[in-house]
TrEMBL record, chain A:
GO CC term, one of those recorded: plasma membrane
Taxonomic path: Bacteria, Pseudomonadati, Pseudomonadota, Alphaproteobacteria, Hyphomicrobiales
UniProt keyword terms in alphabetical order: Cell membrane, Membrane, Transmembrane, Transmembrane helix
Transmembrane segments: 21-40, 52-71, 78-96, 102-124, 131-149, 192-220, 241-258, 264-283, 290-308, 314-339
Name of the protein in its database record: Branched-chain amino acid ABC transporter permease
Pfam family, one: BPD_transp_2
The organism of origin for this protein: Ancylobacter dichloromethanicus
From TrEMBL, chain B:
Annotated protein name in UniProt: ABC transporter ATP-binding protein
Keyword Transport in record: yes
UniProt superkingdom: Bacteria
Gene3D superfamilies per the UniProt record, alphabetical: P-loop containing nucleotide triphosphate hydrolases
Molecular function terms from GO: ATP binding; ATP hydrolysis activity
Keyword Transport in annotation: yes
Length: 358, 255
């Protein structure tokens, strides 16, 4: 019991909304609902929900880099693409037997993280910050898209994997669980749902521990005042780089899950629109908190898909309007503002005030 | 061995020679004030010592070690600490968290909470621990940052106009605190305009003028130095200069 309460303490802190038994009971209720959900739905819809889930890792990574670390990066999409293509290349060449798809998942995420470490080294040790960080990361993303787009010719292949230009790479195997009595192929269905849900819970809780640790303290200190943070003896470049790499790895995880989900990835997954959308999800939800980012991302994705399905040509325009409204009305995020509103009557700390909407 | 030494320190910004061959020596255990008219190069010298600027030539020794090419955070880890002129605090975080960020790597986790409580009491901020640092009064912000700076337990404390914007009472209290810290063995280098504060705390004073060391000595010697008075306010006497300087504090009681 003691160990359990210690564990819960590490999950809570000044860097995350939601604390105390009330919040965690709510969390367990939502989790139980999420576990029970496939029982009341059909495989197709559940598979579609997995599609939403795949993006959340990237959004949580961006929340960490931007919301907590204060560095606006458009690079998430680049790492998403790198990991997605890496997964495709690895699994098309080496197949899915003996659980190799999960090995490929780890390798693909590691490749994205390595690329982020290299890029991040030049960015942060070169002291690039603010709007320039956004410009450089966006450029890298777009360059990657352009590069992949011109790989249509048959000479662009790695082993058996054709890169295939704008048509995209396809036919990689889905994630496959080795199982006694026959591998379980995780098509977009109930089984994949539980695997991804499990990953999501682990990543969410892991990130809560991270941002509430002394590392997270330094991270928000850098966001608030980098000079002061350095003058407390912190090598802020290392913290920024570490954050950037963790965020990139999460974007890479999204990329792998997306690619294995649809058995398909194209250069447009690294395009301008793809690079802008995570910014919208995270900003609308509330980038400076993991929970609001998670809820916001699911909400915005669901609205976006509903708009697209119901024939609206304007789904992207609506996303843009949503971003503008958020910036004007609730700069810290719509879900974030809502969460504070709900929490106010229950919280004795409400009178202490919250960070200004700057 | 001196605590801090600059040897032939030069800094040029293009054609501007902002720091001109500055030799400055701080003995361990002294409170040393750096004064001079606006544009004398005090802030630049301060930033050179901190490592925010690298000198064009010359060397900086800290406790005998050449730190000229070290990064700011490396200098901090060797035992320097700084309080900026504009309060450098984490505005959107609570007062307690501000101190926690400063102290988390200097104390055992088991005693960190108690140490923070003790420092809060020392800074007279116990009742404000849960408030956002950005919502504190100006004087409280200055104190909070001083608290963060001293929580690192530095050998050398650098203060850039620590009393800027403080009332005379707050200025005096800050001076008393500096003296108390000094009595515990902390060496202090302060850039300061407020002559009342300088008189209260300084054992040694260095006057900078046009980037050069213009005069050096005890506070009495500096106040008696008519050339120093001349660079501040033309013909007025040193005594009046000090008096004027005391009244020119932005945000002070007379402002």
């Amino acid at each position: 019991m003691n160990a359990l309460s210690r564990f819960f303490r590490r999950l809570e802190g000044p860097q995350t909304l939601g604390r105390g038994p009330g919040f965690w009971i709510g969390f367990l209720v939502v989790l139980a609902g999420a576990c029970a959900y496939p029982l009341f739905s059909d495989g197709y819809t559940v598979g579609n929900t997995v599609y939403f889930f795949t993006w959340i890792f990237m959004a949580l990574g961006l929340s960490l880099i931007w919301g907590y670390g204060g560095a606006l990066s458009f690079g998430q999409t680049a790492f998403f693409g790198i990991a997605g293509y890496s997964y495709g290349i690895l699994t098309i060449n080496f197949g899915a037997a003996y659980g190799f798809t999960f090995v490929a998942l780890l390798f693909a995420v590691a490749i994205a993280a390595l690329f982020a470490a290299l890029l991040g080294y030049f960015l942060f040790f070169g002291r690039i910050s603010g709007v320039f960080l956004g410009i450089v990361t966006l450029s890298v993303t777009l360059v990657l898209e352009r590069f992949m787009a011109q790989t249509a010719g048959p000479e662009w292949k790695i082993g058996a994997a054709r890169l295939n230009g704008f048509n995209g790479m396809s036919n990689m195997p889905p994630l496959t669980l080795p199982w006694p009595g026959g591998d379980i192929v995780l098509f977009p269905d109930v089984q994949l749902y539980y695997v991804v849900l499990g990953m999501l819970v682990l990543v969410y809780l892991g990130l809560r521990i991270l941002v509430n640790s002394s590392f997270g303290n330094v991270l928000v200190a850098i966001r608030e005042n980098p000079e002061r943070a350095e003058m407390l003896g912190y090598d802020i470049r290392k913290y920024q780089l570490g954050t950037f790499v963790i965020g990139a790895a999460l974007a890479g995880l999204s990329g792998v899950l997306y690619t294995s989900w649809g058995q398909y990835i194209t250069p447009s997954s690294m395009g301008m629109t793809a690079a802008a959308l995570p910014i919208v999800w995270v900003a609308v939800g509330g980038r400076s908190d993991l929970t609001t980012t998670l809820v916001g991302t699911i909400t915005v994705l669901a609205v976006f898909q509903a708009l697209t399905i119901h024939g609206s040509q304007y789904a992207l325009v609506v996303m843009g309007v949503l971003l503008v409204l958020t910036v004007l009305l609730a700069p810290r995020g719509l879900i974030y503002a809502l969460a504070r509103l709900i929490a106010r009557p229950f919280s004795s700390r409400a009178s202490n005030g919250q960070p200004g909407d700057a | 061995m001196p605590m801090l030494e600059t040897k032939g320190l030069n800094k040029r910004f293009g054609g501007l020679h902002v720091t001109n061959n500055v030799d400055l020596t701080l003995q361990a255990g002294e409170v040393h004030c750096l004064i001079g008219p606006n544009g004398a190069g005090k802030s630049t010298l301060f930033r050179l010592i901190l490592g925010e600027h690298l000198p064009s030539s010359g060397a900086i020794l800290f406790g005998g070690e050449d730190i000229t090419s070290l990064k700011p955070f490396q200098r901090i880890r060797r035992g320097m600490s700084v309080k900026f002129q504009v309060p450098g605090i984490f505005k959107a975080l609570s007062v307690r968290q501000n101190l926690e960020i400063a102290m988390q790597h200097h104390y055992d986790p088991a005693v960190l909470g108690e140490e923070i409580d003790r420092l809060l009491a020392f800074l007279n901020l116990t009742a404000d621990a849960g408030r956002l640092a950005g919502n504190l009064s100006h004087g409280q912000k200055q104190w909070l940052e001083i608290g963060m700076a001293i929580s690192l337990k530095p050998r050398l404390l650098l203060l850039d106009e620590p009393t800027a914007g403080m009332s005379p009472e707050e200025t005096h209290a800050t001076g008393e605190m500096v003296k108390r810290l000094n009595a515990q063995g902390m060496t202090v280098l302060a850039v300061e305009h407020d002559m009342a504060f300088v008189r209260q705390v300084a054992q040694q004073v260095t006057v900078l003028h046009l980037g050069k060391v213009f005069a050096q000595g005890s506070i009495d010697e500096i106040v008696a130095n008519e050339e120093v008075a001349a660079i501040y306010l033309g013909q007025t006497t040193a005594h009046e200069t000090a008096h004027e300087a005391g009244h020119q504090q932005p945000g002070g009681a007379h402002a």
